[in-house]
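It is worth pausing here to work through a concrete case rather than discussing structure prediction in the abstract. The textbook approach is simple: state the sequence, then state the predicted structure, then interpret. We follow exactly that order.
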Amino acid sequence: MSFRGQIVELPIGTAGLTGTKNLSVLRPDQLLEADNVSFFFGTLHKEGGASKYNSTAITSAPSVIGGWDWIPSDGIQRMIVVTSAGDILRDTGAGTFGTTLASGLTVSSVVPFFVDCGKEAAANNRKLFIYTGKNAVQVLSGDGVTTTALSSPPADWTGTSQPSFGVLHEGRVFAGGNLNDPHRIYYPLTTNHEDYLTAGAGSIAVFPGEGERLIAGASFKGGLILFKRPFGIYFVDTSNSDVTKWRVTKISKNVGAVSPQSVVPIPDDLVFMDANANIHLLSATTEFGDVSTSNLSQAGDMSIYLQENLNLGQLQNARGIYYDGQKEVHFAVAGSGSTLVTRRIIIDYNRPDRPRFRFSTRDTCESLWLRKDSNGVPRPTSGDAAGFVWLMDQASRSKDSAGYNGQFQTAHTDLSFVDSPIPLASRRKNGKFLELVVEPQGNWNLSVDVLWDDAITQTLQFNMGTTGASLGSFVLGTDKLAGSTVLNKKKRITGSGRRISLIGRNSGDAQDFSVSKFLLHFSLGNERL
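Step two, the predicted structure:
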């Protein structure tokens, strides 16, 4: 006997996570929860796993507060980390971190910043500059076994007044943030990145009456973009070969950045976090030759959510990366009530017309960087608070051979978005069946809570199946699913209400899910309008 009633598609994840508290403006394609999930493959699924790079903790189990994938020359790959013990360590691939490059550094409340530079001439070594804001800039030359202090720093860089960031821009390493002259940016010779003293090197004052200090920078659109904390963004025009004709213009006096790693270059733009945990897009425009800012958090209704779920007093420790392999920006920050970096905010750019937010609570990321894997793909890598480095976005949905929870919740919808001759928003719906469209993943369950009018009425178990081959990638909400690799799974449901919401989750070791949409089968109640 055929079903007598209505069937409505409940899309999931096409607009990503929303933080709005106004349920009346929620769209059916928005999520109220998106924890440890991903949109990359076109469906909603669990984010990639994590495995330990070093099987044994670094001696004394310090926090790994900074890290870098160092390629001193072709075919050689090293991992460089800075620890809370004040050490800079090098690993050659065994995970032992057996070489101490430097020790005894002052690293309290430090966000280490790394810049690849050197190679000013073909015969010169590549160099890695390491900034801490409290110690002389450390220089690793080639595949060396020790770092040295910068050979010819500006006279201002003395004692604990040291630069906190650097930017390789047009053949020079611009650096600043030193507390004894916090509004000044310094530049060396193009022929020697360590020489800030010889004629041809110099410095520029950047609107010294504004903001607290320079905190971050990036090379963008042929100019140098500088950020202050808590507000101030500036454009340094270095296009003229005569350094005396370089000029600084103001982009914004209302927003700035929060840490040296809170400015993230992405293809053709910059993403940055401000002092209110808002995430902005810096977009170049050509109509008037200026640069403007755009608040992604407000556009995604995420501002309040971020402020409530993050520790705003710890934003100075924010770390950011752009993961090109999945077209995502990751910001690692301390969660509400924590001093450890326990949260990641991810902005998915797989649909450039619709950046989508998601959240990750799985990892402690006291540092965050990219490391090239065996296939040559730079993948997220993090350091925790117990002496371990973690390789992230691993194929297995496990963290060190243990499961982790992946969870999402759809919007509370009254089905008013449905084009129906009968107004559905004010009518009571009687649940009959719930159907999932999924890509088979394995012989385990996705648990789904059914909420009518914000109350859980039942929990269903949908087996994720094992039939069919793997599904190719597609764009969620745009491309159609078809073929034997897609399964429809249907369960009878009970309960009724005006609004329905669904919570999906699983947490077993190596368990994943890949859900495209829900189909709600229902009949209308007998109440009169």
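Step three, interpretation. The chain has a mean pLDDT of 92. The first strand starts at residue 6 and ends at 11.
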